[in-house]
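quick one, 81 residues, struct below
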Amino acid sequence: MIQLGKLVNVSVKVSEETRKRMKRMNIDWSGYLRDAIETKIRMEVAREAERRLGEIRRRARKVPTEELVKWIREDRERSLR
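---
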């Protein structure tokens, strides 16, 4: 779970019937909603990262295999020095 820093209030409106039903349940609604919000935020951040990565991939040029092999060999040589 994410560490809680300074907390602020966020209001959610529900119908009276929903509120009555919530009171009958033995559930920490604040904790439940905090977790649900954090999960949604993580999903949206991942979706945005995926979108940006897709843009980068579309703009990036294709690198020939020979070029990749050359880079790997050069990197290995540098690491052996």
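The chain has one domain: 16-80.
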